[in-house]
Amino acid sequence: MGNLSSSTNDDDNSDFSNTYRSSSQSGIPSEAASSRREASQLRFEAKAASQQSQYEYHFGSRSEAEVLSIEKNHLYKQMDKKNQQAATLIFEHFNRDRSYNVIDLHGLYVNEALEYLEDRLAMCRSANILKLTVITGMGNNSPNKIAKIKPQVKKFVRENCLKVTGYSGHIEIDLSTNNEPTADSYQNTNGCIIL
Q: Is residue 35 part of a domain?
């Protein structure tokens, strides 16, 4: 998978402590919840190093600022690694007994969920699977019970002009038609390919 995670994408994990208060409540494996907590701590430390670096630079200590900036980057890399470990554990946990035409994105950050979805779509297409069921959940374990994954999956589906049927906690993507551009296709005003 490509690395869509970014140390500057704070929206995804800003409510970490609220989301992972009780890993048993959300079904997240405890090892994954622990990795998420460690990533959150690393993010906090990286932000502190960044602020201190800016302070040092502003007051003329450029060499100290550079050392702190390097430390910040190292901490963000560690954070990304911990989040990737957690995502792998979570994805495997929720998908271990599922067939390839079903993917469960529960417990993942949005960017992680989209990475797994892209990979699964490619896998389905190469295996000539005609329908993919994407379990997004309804946001019951999200802060304020507001779904984060499903709206972004819907956006991804729209942007990629996929045929979809929506349900309360999942969507079904129809892969029976080829959505790749051909010489006879053109884009409409929404950016969708018209075949």
A: yes
Residue 194 lies in a domain: no
Q: Which of 116, 51, 129, 62 lies closest to 89 in space, CA to CA?
A: 116
Q: What is the pTM of this model?
A: 0.77
Burial of 62 from C-beta contacts in 10 A (0-12 / 13-18 / 19+):
exposed
Paired with 134 in beta bridges are: 103, 171
What is the Cα–Cα distance from 31 to 12, expressed in whole angstroms? 19
Chosen domain end from 93, 120, 135: 93
The pair of three-digit structure tokens given for residue 47, joined into one six-digit string: 């932000």
Residue 42's domain comprises 30-93
CB atoms within 10 A of CB 60: 9
Here the CATH number for the domain that contains residue 120 is: 3.30.1370.110
- Nearest of 21, 81, 19 to residue 46 by alpha carbon: 81
- The answer on 153 and 103 residing in a single domain is yes
State the virtual CA torsion across 80, 85, 91, 97 in degrees, nearest 10.
170
Q: Is the pLDDT of residue 14 over 50?
A: no
Q: What φ, ψ does residue 123 adopt, rounded to 5°?
A: -65, -45
The number of distinct structural domains making up the chain is: 2
What's the rounded mean pLDDT across residues 54-66? 95
User: What is the spatial distance between Cα 24 and Cα 3, in angstroms, rounded to a whole number?
Assistant: 28
CA distance 106 to 141: 9
